[in-house]
Design goal:
The protein has 14 helices and no strands. With 305 residues, it is mostly helical. The protein has one domain. Helix 3 crosses helix 6 and helix 3 packs across helix 7. The longest helix is centred in the first third of the chain and has 25 residues. The protein starts with 9 loop residues before the first helix and ends in a 17-residue tail after the last helix. The N terminus is likely disordered. Bound molecules: zinc ion. Zinc ion binds next to helix 2 and helix 7.
Amino acid sequence: MKKKKYKFSSRNINQSPKKACNCDSCKEMRSLDRIDRVSRWVLGTIKWTYDFGYIFGSGAFNERAYPLEKFEKLEETEKKYLIETCSQAYKPFKKYLLVYVCYLFGAYFQQCKRHKIKFKFEKDFLMTQLLSFRKMVKKFYKEPNKKTNLWLPMLDDLFGKKDLNLNKNFFLAMLPPLTNQQLEYIIDWFIKNRKEKAVESVFYSAAHYLHLELDENSSFSKIKEDGEMIDSLSFKLSQKDFKGFDKSILTTEISLRYSFVYLALSSYEVLKYLFVKSTQEDKFLNQLISIGPDIVYQAKEFNAE
Ligand SMILES: [Zn+2]
């Protein structure tokens, strides 16, 4: 099969020869309020991993290294370690594109259920969701509202350096330069493989997690409302929280807030395999999802020995 050129073709950029689908589901999906909320939640839960697992996890904010006066007194090797660890923290996030696409659609699935919109495994319907997500990431990269909790102001001058761009680095990692044609290709892949266990696992787990977050009767909502901050950070599910979500693979072993890492680690290899073996290959995408360090729950702290 002849390879198509994706990059910089004006046809791709303006590619909408057919009219947007006007079924009830698609019309409702385009009503921005609702979808913004889901995209933001998805982005927020992944950024949480970056902020807390990686930046805080590195020890950048512990009593030895923070605030700046303390940081300045550290040994050079430790300073170097902290700066490097934090400035490279974005790297693992790039290759999990397929994971967060399944995760995003799962979250929309749940939101549709809440609002009684019929969820469709169809291209236009899913494209609206993916474009909304990318628009949101782009906004945070280009003109962020720094007052929202997706932007951690503490990161902006960490270690007294204004050029590390720790917030922006994350958003850029979540925004690979993809053409509409490549986005369609990803969606086609998702539709074709939606019954695969790895795809379903991420999809229904994201739906489950969003449900726990939004449903006022969930045990997680109650903890968030009544408990201390630390209780919601360390909250773990128990068996009763799985009612109605039998396809969710969220676990009772790991804090709910770390779900994205858990899902990424459990599904990545299979999703990548399913994608790479597709007949119509796209070199750029195949590389994007293959290169980079694995995601971890927590960055390592500096070890002096
Ligand atoms: Zn439609």
